[in-house]
Write a sequence for this structure.
C-alpha cells in the first residue's frame, strides 16, 4: 500500500497502544513516519520508523522539535491520559494534568506544525478525542470527558479557520480499545476480570476494539482519500453510542 507515499507523518504518544499501531500502519502505507513519545524504552522497540523522544507537555521541546523537522503533511496527536473518577474525586492537579496533556499539548503541537503545512499548501491533522467527551457522559471519567470534549472544540476551530488553506483537521472518538494502559486501568480496579467483563458488557458487538481498528481510521483521514473531510468527530466504538 502506498496511500501515504511522500507524506511526512508525525505521531505523538507512539510508544504503545493506538499511537504505536498507527505509526506502524503509516509506515506500511508508505509514509515517512516520525514516531514520538515521552517513553524512550517503548519508543526503542519501534524499528521501522524514525523515532524521537518528545514530551508534548513541554512547549519548548515541541517548538524545537517542529523547527528541526520542518514541514510535515500529517500530524496525529495521540498522546493522552485517562483520569478515573468523578468530579468529587478530581483534585485540581488532576484537572490541570488532564487538560495539559489531553488538550493544551494539541494547542502546542498544532501551533508548531501548522505554519509549515500552510507554507506547503496543506496537511491533515488528526486529534485523539474519545466517545467519553461531549458525545457521551461515561461514569468515573470527569476530567477525561471534559478534556476530550475540549479536543473536539480545538478540532472544529482549527478546521474552520484553515478550511480554505488546504489544512484538514478531524477528531477521532474511539470507544474502549485494547491497549497497555487499558489493562493498567483494569488492574487498578482490584478485580481485573470483572472490570473487563463490564467493559465488554456495554459493547453491542461483544468485544472491545483492537488498536489496528483505530489506526485504520487515522490512516484514512491522513490520506488524500479523505480530502473532502474536515472538522468532524469520527466515532469508532463498535456501536456503543448507537
Ligand atoms: P496508552 O495509554 O497505552 O499509551 C499512551 C502513550 O502516550 C504512551 O506511550 C505514553 O508514554 C504516551 N504519553 C504519555 N504522556 C506523554 C507525554 N507527555 N508526551 C508524549 N507522550 C506521552 O495508549 P492508548 O490507550 O492507545 O491511548 C492513546 C490515546 O487514545 C490517548 O489519548 C487516549 O486517551 C485515547 N483513547 C484511548 C482509548 C482506549 O480505550 N484505550 C479510548 C479512547 C481514546
Amino acid at each position: 500500500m502506498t496511500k501515504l507515499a511522500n507524506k511526512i507523518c508525525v505521531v505523538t504518544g507512539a510508544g504503545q497502544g493506538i499511537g504505536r499501531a498507527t505509526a506502524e500502519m503509516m509506515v506500511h502505507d508508505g509514509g515517512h513516519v516520525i514516531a514520538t513519545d515521552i517513553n524512550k524504552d517503548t519508543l526503542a522497540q519501534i524499528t521501522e520508523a524514525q523515532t524521537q523522544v518528545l514530551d508534548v507537555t513541554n512547549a519548548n521541546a515541541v517548538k524545537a522539535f517542529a523547527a528541526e523537522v520542518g514541514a510535515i503533511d500529517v500530524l496525529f496527536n495521540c498522546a493522552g491520559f485517562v483520569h478515573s473518577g468523578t468530579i468529587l474525586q478530581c483534585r485540581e492537579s488532576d484537572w490541570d494534568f488532564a487538560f495539559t496533556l489531553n488538550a493544551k499539548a494539541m494547542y502546542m503541537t498544532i501551533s508548531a506544525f501548522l505554519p509549515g503545512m500552510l507554507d506547503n499548501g496543506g496537511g491533515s491533522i488528526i486529534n485523539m478525542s474519545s466517545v467519553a467527551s461531549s458525545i457521551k457522559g461515561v461514569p468515573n471519567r470527569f476530567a477525561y470527558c471534559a478534556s476530550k470534549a475540549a479536543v473536539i472544540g480545538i478540532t472544529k476551530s482549527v478546521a474552520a479557520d484553515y478550511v480554505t488553506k488546504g489544512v484538514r483537521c478531524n477528531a477521532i472518538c474511539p470507544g474502549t480499545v485494547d491497549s497497555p494502559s487499558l489493562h493498567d486501568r483494569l488492574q487498578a480496579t482490584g478485580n481485573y476480570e470483572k472490570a473487563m467483563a463490564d467493559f465488554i458488557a456495554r459493547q453491542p458487538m461483544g468485544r472491545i476494539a483492537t488498536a489496528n481498528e483505530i489506526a485504520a481510521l487515522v490512516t484514512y483521514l491522513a490520506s488524500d482519500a479523505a480530502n473532502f473531510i474536515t472538522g468532524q468527530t469520527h466515532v469508532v466504538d463498535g456501536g456503543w453510542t448507537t
